[in-house]
Specification:
The chain is α+β, with helices and mostly antiparallel strands and 106 residues long. It contains three helices and five strands. The chain has helices at 32-39, 41-45, 83-103, and strands at 5-12, 20-27, 53-56, 59-60, 72-76. It has a five-stranded mixed sheet, with helices on one face.
Length: 106
């Protein structure tokens, strides 16, 4: 498949509820790092392409990973809250709300 092109989607979520995505056509043999450079998302969001955590379809991959046609490249940001701690907080709030509702208006 000499000269074939890959259709790649590059996605980054800078904050909850925000998504910046871009579709690219890259030459066959392109790597994950090539997609990061071609998309411009790292530059636009002030990320260092050499140190950013990136992956393909939800799995972190090294930057030298070869891409396949229709891959979805994702840039990952650091978590602000540990997922286990966030779940504990939600459960605590739900228990408090249930206890308040059971107590009645008096």
């Amino acid at each position: 498949m000499a000269g074939a092109e890959l259709l790649i989607e590059v996605v980054y979520s800078p904050a909850a509820g925000q998504v910046d995505q871009m579709s690219l056509q890259l030459p066959d043999g392109a790597r994950l790092l090539d997609a990061l450079h071609a998309s411009g998302l790292c530059h636009r969001h002030g990320l260092d392409p050499a140190t950013v955590r990136a992956g393909i379809w939800g799995r972190v991959q090294p930057l030298h990973t070869l891409l396949r046609d229709r891959d979805r490249v994702e840039l990952y940001r650091a978590l602000r809250v540990d997922p286990k701690e966030a779940r504990r907080l939600r459960q605590r709030r739900a228990r408090q709300a249930a206890a308040k509702a059971a107590a009645g208006p008096y």
